[in-house]
Write a structure and sequence with these properties.
alpha/beta, TIM Barrel, 8-stranded parallel β-barrel, about 40% helix, globular, binds 2-phosphoglycolic acid
Length: about 250
């Protein structure tokens, strides 16, 4: 059985007051439920780790630098993230690929750095609307996966999140058939590259407008092992029912 994971990406939202949501969410989680990780903005990481103490919530960062240290003003290293007590880091979110021009090779280097610091990388891949419309989704996904994922991936150090860019923050969600097709394809690629055991065990998340009212349908796809949730992860009242739907799936 693959582990299930619900990951929340707060993006550039939240202040210290928002951390109260972690206690509210944590109190609603069953011991047996899916793994849960929340990725707040970097200035909140240390406090978030403490706010989540005594709950089953792990904390993650939203990005790390590809170098271990040095003259990179404003950047944050994987070691610094691990030092806060966080255990995950998102790598290659489409908003960073776009606004920060991150290439697959950059993301691959970031993931290696995350692994060196014992962080689990949540590697994001996903196509733009034009690629979707031109039926190029699988080609784009294959290229991003091949380019962003280093060879030493395991089920412990890697999570893959499929996030169609046109579904992020838009309220638009692919059909269950489309999600199934892409996730099955990613699974096949992982098995071909990493072998049956590792390829089969790496959790695959769907991301893009996951909400309490569509989560149950999305989790029906066999190779959807969880979700990467943006807007609906900010409030425990929205995130908790998504986690509950994953637990039932
Ligand atoms: P959304 O964001 O759930 O707000 O669409 C998802 C993401 O960008 O990870």
């Amino acid at each position: 059985m693959r582990r299930k994971l619900a990951a929340g990406n707060w993006k550039m939202n939240g202040t210290a007051a928002s951390l109260a949501e972690l206690a509210v969410l944590g109190a609603q989680l069953d011991d047996e439920g899916p793994d849960v990780v929340v990725c707040p903005p970097a200035p909140l990481l240390y406090r978030a780790v403490h706010a989540a103490e005594g709950t089953r919530i792990d904390i993650g960062a939203q990005d790390c630098h590809m170098q271990s240290k040095g003259a990179f003003t404003g950047d944050i290293s994987a070691e610094m993230i691990a030092d806060t007590g966080a255990r995950y880091v998102i790598a290659g979110h489409s908003e960073r690929r776009d606004a920060h021009e991150e290439r697959n090779s950059d993301i691959r280097a970031k993931v290696s750095m995350a692994w060196a610091c014992d962080l689990t990388a949540i590697i994001c891949i996903g196509e733009e609307l034009s690629d979707h419309q031109q039926n190029n989704t699988l080609d784009i996904i294959a290229g991003q996966l091949a380019g962003s994922l280093p060879d030493a991936a395991t089920a412990h150090n890697t999570v893959i999140a499929y996030e169609p860019i046109w579904a992020i923050g838009t309220g638009k969600v692919p059909t269950l058939e489309q999600i199934t097709q892409v996730h099955d394809f990613i699974r096949e690629k992982l098995i071909n590259r990493l072998g049956q055991d590792v390829g089969d065990a790496i959790p695959l998340l769907y991301g893009g407008s996951v909400k309490p009212d569509n989560a149950e349908t999305i989790f029906r796809a066999e190779n959807v092992d969880g979700a990467l949730v943006g807007g609906a992860s900010l409030k425990a009242a929205d995130f908790a029912p998504i986690i509950a739907a994953l637990a039932r799936s």
